[in-house]
Amino acid sequence: MYTKENVTVLDHPVVARDLSILRNQDTDIVEFRTAMARIATILAYTSLKELPLRETSIQTPITETKGYHIDTDVIVVPILRAGLTLVDAIMNFIPDAKVGHLGMYRDEITHEPVDYYSNLPDGISEGLVLLVDPMLATGGSADDAIGYLKKQGAKKIRFTSLISAPEGLKRITEKYPDVSIITAAVDEKLNEDAFIVPGLGDAGDRYFGTS
Ligand code: PRP
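Structure tokens for the assembled complex are given below, as produced in the milestone run.
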């Protein structure tokens, strides 16, 4: 079990079963998407822990009692493309969440992120920004994305991934100790092509049916 105070690793039998489905190279696209949707729900639920609440008063059919509103705006920011796989699950819990997009892909030779798109909504300075990307490998993409979000004024950032490599976790936790990370698994290492081992291959390609 990976222990760092700002890293949360999911620990649940359903997650273990679904991660196995996602890792298996024989899993077809339908099963892959279904398992991803289930884990995304648990990741979203965990990422939304500790949201500030505002008290209100509500009337049940029996009596008046205390109720709660979520007292912050939530802005989801997927790193394209694969980050899109985690957006719906958050919007299911927070239907009025705004969504910003950061387009970047990892250069196959240098393994460095290449930015190609950015579109952020207003309000990222005040709200909770949930940056999402299923794979945290070298951490280059997350590092770039967090740096950019901070430059745009984001103050409260959480990063949610499906599978993380220790290398990426080290890079992000050391550089951004104020950013908490929620992940479903911490894998063994990166290989010479900077792919996560054992990993699941390329999440974006498997989810979208490209290669
Ligand atoms: C993958 C993944 C992350 C990045 C992780 O994206 O979804 O964005 O690589 O690697 P890093 O931690 O070493 O930066 P990819 O380049 O495959 O693009 P895609 O999402 O469009 O498939």
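Residues 7-56+66-208 form a domain with the Rossmann fold fold (CATH 3.40.50.2020). Residues 79-82, 105-106, 111, 113, 133, 135-142, 168, 194, 202-205 surround PRP (CB under 6 Å). Further analysis is deferred to the final report.
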